[in-house]
């Protein structure tokens, strides 16, 4: 049996509550609109119930330094250059051509940040702090070396430039639950830790070395200690299922979970229609279907061994118990 489309799921549930089929999910109103919301809500609910095998993902990234620029005295920056090496390419900005040193350190720092934003690199976040007239360039997680050098033609009395060890790396946009973080460079698997513990151990962020712990802090991985070298990292995680929106969209949950999803939505819509007795009976069926789906999923997971196709893992690792991100409801 093939997966049902978003439109087909709508119509199955509409027929079960004695409503007419629809032809387009993007123009729904009334009960059909509520059903669409419930289908996506049900996906999220089922996501928390098990580690569904189709949602397994991997991503490679490398640890890399941040580039830091601090304007100390804008009046001495006439024709000064700032040169940054990013992924093997040098980028140069020049005062009077790419930015103007005028008015104040803060205004000049803002102008430098704007000039940097106009460069052709990708996957770089530029953060400026007007209070300290500083700019931080952070490379998003990627399979490259990021920033490797920064220099200025100034004697650094007017503008200070440096590379700074970086301990935070953005998690993927589709991240749901963590499985493991592997340091291929050092053939180790980082153990989960507490970012509160990291703060107590390294309050001034002055300790660097080979990381052996990680935590999930907001939307970032945080490594401890701060990496002092370029390490290739492999992350394994369960992705969040994409919300359904178009007629032909298919749920990223496995086929084994689809009947449970439909039955849960059916129960919720009967509850909305004030038929609690029918909703209760349907909920009992939902629990049965969910248990069957989880059992089938666990059988498949028991047979899965994670082997990365690009790098040779220190050892073949079965899927481990996942950790929820710090923002995920407990």
Outline the fold blueprint.
Elements: H1 6-16, H2 30-47, E1 56-62, E2 66-71, E3 81-86, E4 89-94, H3 105-117, E5 124-129, E6 134-139, E7 147-152, E8 159-164, E9 168-170, E10 175-183, E11 188-192, H4 195-201, E12 208-209, E13 213-217, E14 220-224, E15 226-227, E16 232-239, H5 258-272, H6 276-302, E17 305-306, E18 317-318
Parallel strand pairs: 11-13, 12-15
Antiparallel strand pairs: 1-16, 2-6, 2-8, 3-4, 3-7, 5-6, 9-14, 10-11, 10-16, 13-14, 17-18
Helix pairs in contact: 1-2, 1-5, 2-5, 5-6
Can you describe this structure?
- The chain is α+β, with helices and mostly antiparallel strands and 330 residues long.
- The chain is 28% helix and 28% strand.
- It has 6 helices and 18 strands.
- The strands form 5 sheets. It has a 7-stranded mixed sheet, with no helix packed on it.
- The radius of gyration is 26 Å and the shape is elongated.
- The two termini are 35 Å apart.
- 32% of the residues are buried.
What's the N-to-C terminus distance? 35 Å
Instruction: Enumerate the strands of the largest sheet in spatial order, edge to edge or round the barrel.
Output: 1-16-10-11-13-14-9
Largest sheet: 7 strands, mixed
Count of the separate structural domains: 3
> What's the shape?
elongated
The structural class is alpha+beta
Overall helicity:
25-40%
Order of helices and strands: HHEEEEHEEEEEEEHEEEEEHHEE
Strand content: 25-35%
Total number of beta strands: 18
Mean pLDDT: 90
Calculate Rg over CA atoms: 26 Å
Number of helices: 6
- Uncertain segments: 306-318
